[in-house]
Amino acid sequence: MKIAVLPGDGIGTEIVAEAVKVLKALGLGLEMEHAPVGGAAYEASGHPLPDATLRLAREADAVLFGAVGDWKYDTLERALRPEQAILGLRKHLGLFANFRPAICYEQLVGASSLKPELIAGLDILIIRELTGDIYFGQPRGRRVATDGHFPGAEEAFDTMRYSRPEIERIAHVAFQAARKRNKKVTSVDKANVLETFQLWKDVVTEVARDYPDVTLEHMYVDNAAMQLVKAPKKFDVIVTGNMFGDILSDEASMLTGSIGMLPSASLNAKNQGLYEPSHGSAPDIAGQGIANPLATILSAAMMLRFSLNQPEAADRIEAAVKAVLAQGLRTPDIWSEGTTKVGTVQMGDAVLKALG
Ligand code: NAD
């Protein structure tokens, strides 16, 4: 079992180091090879996704990814910005299904900005289509200004598009995931305004016929955004397109208190996957040793379950995370009165110890 370890930028290196420590302690004989990605790779070789990094990711059974990006790269041309590395990996590995669970841990109910009764016991899964939609549509561009320059442009455009097979495959993923949970899928669209999402709604409805045991409901994205803060526990699996999923999954992650707690998985048709925390590189706290490593450690657990077929090891990690929370250990992002503040490395060490 070979894992490509791509720590990236900012807190990426700090949090991935803790996840690697935990993975090594499981004694599964995992082969882990590191490579630069994002800003770190741009600094080293002039490109955010060097060929050698992409090759390693392709050859591995799974990719453990930290985060990429820093404000200092904002002036670079788009193709060289760190974030392009993640888009490139998704595209080249065919990672079309993004799983973002939003789980509220009992001990962190107080960390949410919502009332405890709304989120206690919350366990929802957002499945976001990752390789289509407006982020990958063609044509796209800015019409140059009369003086021939982009900065003065009066108009810009991006094209939203989905094909039937793209919608079918993500719908199947969602229904299959729902079968293993509470058997309900909410398909989020904007079919009242957008043709792309009328097709989405029609195709999801057709696919639902293969899953008579799963309940399907359709919801417009604006309503879904409201319902997520009004009554989030009504959802089980949400399936949606790339852009709506981007926004709703961040909204859902904050229901649970801290983005530092939430893992994610992006899978292709062969169950090869890229596993990363839901958050970014947090340049504001990088290098301070205070980032929460639990989202990355929990992403490693998802990797063991989905791509490496090691569900018991995944269970061990998840139980260890619950145990350290029960011990009252908290990084600053989830700290509250009466709990013990710890740094990134101490949190990783505590998980390691709790593995038993
Ligand atoms: P961010 O997720 O990096 O940070 C948002 C806020 O959450 C910050 O206040 C940060 O300190 C905090 N935070 C994030 N992760 C944390 C953790 N593990 N522990 C404690 N606090 C944490 O989002 P941003 O500030 O909008 O973006 C920063 C950079 O990250 C940008 O360059 C952006 O493009 C990039 N980014 C990368 C990815 C990715 O690599 N997949 C995803 C999102 C953003």
Q: Which fold does the CATH topology of the largest domain refer to?
A: Isopropylmalate Dehydrogenase
Number of strands: 14
Overall shape: it is globular
In angstroms, what is the radius of gyration? 20 Å
Structural class: alpha/beta
Number of helices: 12
Number of domains: 2
Ranges with pLDDT <50 over ≥5 residues? none
- What's the average pLDDT? 94
Secondary-structure topology with pairs:
Layout: E1 2-8, H1 12-25, E2 31-34, H2 39-45, H3 51-59, E3 62-67, H4 83-93, E4 97-103, H5 116-119, E5 123-129, E6 140-143, E7 155-158, H6 164-179, E8 184-189, H7 195-208, E9 215-220, H8 221-230, E10 237-240, H9 242-255, E11 263-267, E12 273-277, H10 294-306, H11 311-326, E13 329-330, E14 340-341, H12 344-354
Parallel strand pairs: 1-2, 1-3, 3-12, 5-10, 8-9, 8-10, 13-14
Antiparallel strand pairs: 4-5, 4-11, 6-7, 11-12
Helix pairs in contact: 1-10, 1-12, 6-7, 8-9, 10-11, 11-12
The protein binds nicotinamide-adenine-dinucleotide.
The site of nicotinamide-adenine-dinucleotide (NAD) has 22 residues, from helix 4.
Brief synopsis:
The protein has twelve helices and 14 strands. It is α/β, with parallel strands linked by helices. The strands form three sheets. The chain has a ten-stranded mixed β-sheet, sandwiched between helices. Strands 6-7 form a two-stranded antiparallel sheet. Strands 13-14 form a two-stranded parallel sheet.
